[in-house]
Each structure stands twice: as structure tokens, then as C-alpha cells.
Design a protein that fits this description.
alpha+beta, Endonuclease, Chain A, 4-stranded mixed β-sheet, 10 strands, elongated, nuclease
């Protein structure tokens, strides 16, 4: 692959000339790639690959780049919902039409992005992003603690204390958060004999499985779910199943079902 193309791809299909030069490219190499139609100049000092997202091209024209939740989503981290307006980073700090601006020099690091998410998001939204960074092995908890050192970042450290590296999905993370906020004792990925793991164990009595259509909406997964349900019954562990949509949009219904199930179990 062409060196200039390779480096622009690392920046997400749009990159500054300055960043390319700092990463080993040359003006001659940039000129050759442009001549050969491999890249296009989209703004003074900015170059893009074919198929670059129109938003990234527009941001280049304002000397801006994605940041905060907008960049977290691009990186594949767990974002509860895309922000209403793109969040962007600029060195100049001037307004960018239709965007929320974070003033920062240079290319935002992963930790810059995570700190921005804590700054802009709710506690549960920030938890999802930070936890995914650990689960997906983009960073470690000690590295996060170092990134959130200082008196002004105590809220970030409180969120780091909630992280469970065993979480398997954003839905599981959100369900665990809402349950713990409601005062329940919750264990993640609890091992059940002869079956494997249940997503969450509540008060040592009730299992909870969080089901996303992407993983359960096919004949094989459906049969596996039937087997798991039967084995949990045999092992004496009653289990609720909730959809990803329910957890994301109506967690209060999940909490009501959990309360009612626990009342039934403790009344026996």
C-alpha cells in the first residue's frame, strides 16, 4: 500500500499534511499520491482518501476533527446513543456550525477522547465508553486511573471504579449499572454448572440474560437459548431474559420484572 494512503487511513480517511509529515511522509510523496488520484486535497493542508465521510471533509474545511462520543463511535467503542450534534476537536476553539467544539491541540489521544466523554455524557454513557475501552483491550484500568489523576477528574475515577472487565456487551454493562443503582447485588458472567455463564446474577438468586437480535435471531442461537433455559431450570437457577432494546430504552421495566421475580422467589 502507498505510504501516504496508509497513514491517511490511520487517521480515518482524512488527515492534515502536518500529521502526515510527522509520521514519515514527504511532500513529494503526498504530491505523487495526489497526482495518481489516490488522495484528494479537500482543504488547505488537508487530504482525503476516496470515500471519505462528508462530515470529515466538512470538518477538515474548518480545521477540525471528530472527538468525544463522535470519535468513540468511530473507534468501535460502546456508545449508548450518537450525540445530537457531532463533537469535534479544534486547536483554534472557534465555533464549527452544527457541532460541539472541544478545544485541543494536536490529534486527540484515546485518553483525551475518554475524558471528553466523561465531561459531556451522563454517568452511564461515560461508563459504557470507558468499560469498552478496557474490554476491547484499548487500554488497561491502571492506564485509565493515570489518565484521570487530579482533583478535577474525581468523577472520572468514580466511573472507573464501576468498570467490570468481564462485561461482554454494552447491554450487559447498562443492565448491570441500572441494577446496581437500584441497590441490587450483581455479579457479571456468573458460572452455572453444566451450562456456562449467565450474563448477570442478582442477589445470588436470579439470573438475567441480555439478548441482542444480532446474536440470538437465528435458528442455531434460538436452539442454544432453549438448551440454556432448560439447564438453568435443572440447576435451580431461575432466569429472566430481556432484550437489548428494553435495556436501552425502558430499563425501568427490567427493574420492575427483577423486583417482582425476587419477591416471588423470597416468598417461597
Amino acid at each position: 500500500m502507498n505510504l501516504v494512503v496508509e497513514h491517511i487511513a490511520q487517521f480515518g480517511k482524512v488527515a492534515r499534511r502536518r500529521d502526515l509529515i510527522e509520521n514519515g511522509c514527504t511532500d513529494w510523496g503526498i504530491a505523487v499520491a495526489q497526482r495518481d488520484g489516490l488522495i484528494t486535497k479537500v482543504a488547505p493542508g488537508y487530504f482525503a482518501l476516496p470515500g471519505a465521510h462528508p462530515l470529515d471533509v466538512r470538518l477538515a474545511q474548518h480545521q477540525a476533527r471528530r472527538a468525544c462520543f463522535s470519535q468513540a463511535e468511530e473507534l468501535g467503542l460502546w456508545v449508548v446513543k450518537p450525540p445530537d450534534q457531532p463533537h469535534v476537536a479544534t486547536a483554534h476553539g472557534r465555533p464549527v456550525p452544527g457541532c460541539v467544539v472541544h478545544k485541543i491541540s494536536g490529534v486527540p489521544t484515546l485518553f483525551d477522547i475518554l475524558r471528553q466523554c466523561v465531561q459531556c455524557g451522563t454517568e452511564v454513557e461515560a461508563l459504557a465508553v470507558l468499560e469498552s475501552a478496557v474490554v476491547l483491550k484499548r487500554c488497561t484500568i491502571p492506564e485509565l486511573r493515570a489518565a484521570f489523576a487530579g482533583r478535577q477528574r474525581a468523577n472520572g475515577r468514580a466511573i472507573i471504579d464501576m468498570i467490570d472487565p468481564q462485561s461482554m456487551s454494552i447491554v450487559e454493562t447498562l443492565a448491570r449499572y441500572y441494577l446496581r443503582q437500584a441497590g441490587y447485588n450483581v455479579q457479571s458472567q456468573f458460572h452455572v454448572r453444566n451450562m456456562g455463564h449467565v450474563d448477570l446474577l442478582i442477589e445470588g438468586l436470579l439470573g438475567l440474560e441480555t439478548d441482542g437480535a444480532a446474536y440470538h435471531n437465528n435458528p442455531t442461537a434460538w436452539e442454544e437459548d432453549l438448551v440454556r433455559n432448560n439447564l438453568m431450570m435443572i440447576e435451580g437457577l431461575p432466569c429472566l431474559r430481556v432484550s437489548a432494546r428494553l435495556v436501552l430504552t425502558n430499563p425501568e421495566i427490567m427493574l420492575r420484572w427483577v423486583r417482582q421475580a425476587l419477591e416471588t422467589l423470597t416468598d417461597k
